[in-house]
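Q: Protein A?
A:
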Amino acid sequence: MELHLKGRTALITGASSGIGVGVARILASEGARVAITARRDNELEQTASQIAASIGQAPIVVSGDITEPTDVARIAAESATALGHIDILVNCAGASRPTEPSASDDHWDEAFALNFSAARRLTQAILPEMRARHWGRVINLSGSMEPRSLNAATAAKAALHLWAKGLSCDVADEGITINTIAPGRINSNQVLNRLHPTDKSRQEFIFRNIPIGYFGEPEDIGHLVAFLASPLARYITGAVIPVDGGMHFFAH
């Protein structure tokens, strides 16, 4: 299927590892010009080199900390300057934050800064130009809304869901769509090293909870991102779409 992404431009956060890398690789392979951002310079450069080797065009690297408002403004400005403008924003950055009932404000503030406020600020920085051109795509990476214990990131992602839904209504008639993807278990450092550090634990979890029979790959998310970013997905907005192999809700 031709997704008509050649010549489109995209900024992807959290692109130094995991899902962000998979998204960057797929969008680049579809012909989009890509800028990638994260805090880790070395890993960003490795991502850019790998994509250049396989696709033939290296992404623009703009390192920075998206939990810092001044860095958000700089990342948005540098990316827009390098690409000319930004058609597609993919907010991939985020991380789980298991939380004690007595957790401090600092713990909660950090979780919301990474998992909600960063996406909101970056979108707000880029949205005016999208509105001026009457075309844009914002795609957020989220998580389960079926918590089994307290996790500050889950609360932040709940805020992300409803913020994105409300925003999608405000800009829908301007050619801009806002959608959210809720990944299940994806082969990434966070899943493989923290949630399921042994092959036995992975296989047991898959057997109990994932009907499709395996963990997904970052590119499985990337393919959906590419479709949602395309003109073909013009009638999809305000959605939260799971990509989880049919994982049972209670398993999240």
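Q: Protein B?
A:
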Amino acid sequence: MRVSFRIALAGQVIGVSALYEQTRTFCKNYLTDAPASFEVAVTPADIAFEREKNDREAAVEGHAPGNFSDEYLETLALYRKIVERLLEWDTLLFHGSCISVDSKAYLFTAKSGTGKSTHTQLWKKWFGERAVFINDDKPLLKISAQGVTVYGTPWDGKHHRSTNTSCPLKAVCILTRNTENSIQRIDKKAALPMLCQQSYRPCSPIGAQKTLALVDRLGSSVPLYRLGCNMEPEAALVAYHGMNQ
């Protein structure tokens, strides 16, 4: 028997037909009874695709294949189906750690393992209740003429830091490791390779073209920075003050 429910993400309501009850539990903070904007259904073929994809990526990276459950793989298949449809509403999925302070969001991105989550955790320590984790892994960005709004999602990384909320995006910051803390404003041309790399790109030519157009708009809509940090506590203050001059 299939499991049906609806979730609200980035201002849209998605009707979901899943194979496992665990998927509804995974999305529990985003459940809604509102009418659906569109519907998606996960099939066994979708789960098989996710398993094959993970195995291929592990082989390329020289790792043993992950022993992932079908239940976990269904959550991956679900976000893939949803975010490809959300492009119709000028919304893209971005790989980064996003935290808000005083209702303004700051999005940090970098190659995996650089320390995005470690850095935003420093913000939480410094700013306490003023700081709220929007999403620590895969936030949604809705890009409009008025600016960029960032939304939480259930896909929130290994630390499970996220909030079902939305917030105006103040800036995007590319994180790098350094012995000393420093931050500088950069232009779109310098940031674009990383912005493209960290945005979810569909396989379809139309979807990929739409994503690239949205990434270009993102780079024009918010200030862009590069932060060199040593992961000491003061790195959070250097970043915050640098993006609020």
